[in-house]
């Protein structure tokens, strides 16, 4: 019944195909969307003047919080990395079985049924690897392909350095938020898990006698997360997938983007019916496959340009501290690097904690440790590879000027063409591996697809927190989500990235406040898990 209702609701999307015959529909969608995107970006990126630079408050909070957690937990991004690998490999799975190990208590508030949460190892819906794959699919995506291109075009090679720094300290934020996500999750009478910042903000702060603040922050986060699922987790993905498909096929203009968006919406709609178990089963297969393709291609190009690797790394380091003209100074490069990294790995935004909350474990810190691998995979590895490929390409072709904007007008086949985002990355890869743009198109579609279905779960959990867990609320959210697939495909990169950036970054405000207030609970959970791990080693 649930499937038939959702499939029936998808029929409402098909009238768009009729209107799509109207030439210029993409432009109409963009014109309607751009004013709101610009307003929202200006609001979220409100700046304060520091040392002559206007620095967004949200980035200050993001950087300060991540740095604090890195120091407070004695560099967990380095110290706990081997434990994270062993946990994902299943080395400590015996700890999750309840054999003589202290059971972690989930707070019994807001109607939780004690009989369903006594043994947390029996709760949860996915394994450590599936939770990691689902969360990585929500972070490793077009932010790594198109986002890096935007970062380098705006901030030059030096932006790569600051993206890496953001990824490294972001590992600590991810550890904290995902540990809290498991600790304060809710499990209903059917064993379905509900978790994420909205739950640890509400319950965790209630424990600290700040119930009012907790409820307010939880509601704010849930509202913003729904918006982020429509933006960065959806519209940006469909936009860049549509751009790549249009570029590959040579069919552009008119209503092409909208038509592609409708097709993507139908495909995504079929998958998101299944919930987190279906999403996990799909993403655990898609994520490794697309990651291997993309990483192998990146390595081929890097090794093909190995004689230039020293020059490229030199440009990254020198550009980080002595940026070229037009980039906006050192602070400008830092802002671009951190903003793009935050959009890519979402550390500090709290979104991944929603997926990690569904893990089968009795030790919240075990999943927090697994989660810290995400920013490393996403930003330190994948984003750096993409950056090197683009830098090599520009060294050879001189395709664009650093600091020239999100895209540039370049000479291609003796004609001036505008490139930006995913098409810039596609050209860089295709310049070394002729025809790879076709393979990259498939990878891009898979990245976009997996990111959209993961973010549909994030947004749905937030939607249910606000409007209840009934079927009607479920259907309404999914239809709205699918409509934004179409809007994103029809709008321009500039409009979509303004809206998407702001939506992702806005999550930092309520989430980081909660993390800073609740981090002592994370320390308690970490000590419990590490004590159990030491017992296994002995």
Automatic annotation (TrEMBL):
Entry GO CC: plasma membrane
Keywords in alphabetical order: Cell membrane, Membrane, Signal, Symport, Transmembrane, Transmembrane helix, Transport
Annotated InterPro entries: Na/Ala_symport (IPR001463)
Signal peptide: 1-20
Domain of life: Bacteria
Annotated compartments: Cell membrane
Entry membrane topology: Multi-pass membrane protein
A GO molecular-function descriptor: amino acid:sodium symporter activity
Chain segments annotated as transmembrane: 50-73, 131-153, 159-176, 212-233, 253-274, 286-306, 312-338, 376-395, 436-458, 479-497, 503-519
Membership in a protein family: Belongs to the alanine or glycine:cation symporter (AGCS) (TC 2.A.25) family.
Name of protein: Alanine glycine permease
Organism per entry: Aureicoccus marinus
């Amino acid at each position: 019944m649930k499937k038939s209702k959702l499939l029936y609701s998808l029929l409402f999307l098909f009238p768009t195909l009729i209107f799509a015959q109207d030439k210029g529909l993409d432009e109409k969608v963009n014109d309607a969307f751009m004013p709101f995107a610009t307003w929202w970006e200006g609001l979220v990126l409100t700046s304060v003047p520091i040392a002559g630079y206007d620095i967004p408050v949200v980035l200050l909070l993001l950087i300060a919080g991540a740095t604090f957690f890195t120091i407070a937990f004695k560099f967990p991004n380095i110290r706990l990395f081997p434990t994270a690998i062993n946990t994902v490999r299943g080395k400590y799975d015996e700890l999750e079985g309840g054999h003589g190990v202290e059971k972690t208590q989930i707070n019994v508030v807001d109607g939780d049924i004690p009989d369903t949460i006594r043994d947390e190892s029996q709760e949860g819906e996915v394994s450590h690897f599936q939770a990691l794959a689902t969360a990585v699919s929500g972070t490793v995506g077009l932010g790594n392909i198109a986002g890096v291109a935007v970062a380098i075009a705006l901030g030059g090679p030096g932006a790569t350095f600051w993206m890496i720094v953001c990824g490294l300290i972001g590992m600590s934020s991810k550890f904290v938020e995902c540990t809290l996500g498991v600790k304060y999750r809710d499990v209903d009478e059917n064993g379905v898990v509900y978790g994420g910042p909205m739950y640890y903000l509400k319950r965790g702060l209630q424990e600290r006698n700040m119930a009012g603040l907790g409820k307010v922050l939880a509601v704010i986060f849930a509202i913003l997360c729904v918006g982020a699922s429509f933006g960065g987790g959806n519209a940006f993905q469909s936009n860049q997938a549509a751009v790549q498909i249009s570029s590959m096929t040579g069919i552009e203009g008119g209503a092409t983007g909208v038509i592609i968006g409708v097709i993507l919406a139908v495909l995504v709609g079929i998958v998101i019916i299944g919930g987190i178990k279906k999403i996990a089963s799909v993403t655990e297969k898609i994520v490794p496959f697309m990651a291997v393709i993309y990483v192998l291609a990146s390595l081929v190009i890097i090794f093909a340009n190995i004689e230039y690797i020293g020059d490229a790394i030199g440009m990254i380091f020198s550009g980080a501290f002595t940026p070229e003209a037009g980039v906006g100074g050192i602070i400008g490069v830092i802002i671009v690097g951190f903003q793009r990294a935050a959009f890519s790995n979402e550390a500090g935004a709290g979104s991944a904690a929603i997926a990690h909350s569904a893990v089968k474990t009795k030790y919240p810190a075990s999943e927090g440790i697994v989660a810290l691998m995400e920013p490393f995979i996403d930003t330190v590895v994948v984003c750096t590879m993409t950056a090197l490929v683009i830098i090599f390409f520009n060294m050879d072709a001189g395709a664009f000027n650093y600091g020239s904007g999100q895209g540039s007008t370049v000479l291609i086949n003796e004609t001036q063409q505008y490139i930006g985002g995913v098409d810039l990355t596609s050209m860089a890869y295709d310049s070394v591996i002729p025809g790879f743009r076709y393979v990259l198109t498939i990878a891009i579609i898979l990245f976009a697809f997996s990111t959209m279905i993961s973010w549909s779960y994030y947004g749905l959990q937030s939607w249910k927190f606000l409007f209840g867990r009934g079927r009607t609320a479920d259907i309404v959210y999914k239809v709205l989500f699918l409509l934004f697939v179409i809007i994103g495909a029809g709008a321009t990169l500039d409009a979509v990235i303004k809206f998407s950036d702001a939506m992702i970054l806005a999550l930092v405000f309520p989430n980081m406040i909660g993390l800073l207030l609740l981090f002592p609970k994370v320390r308690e959970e970490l000590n419990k898990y590490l004590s159990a791990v030491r017992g296994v080693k002995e």
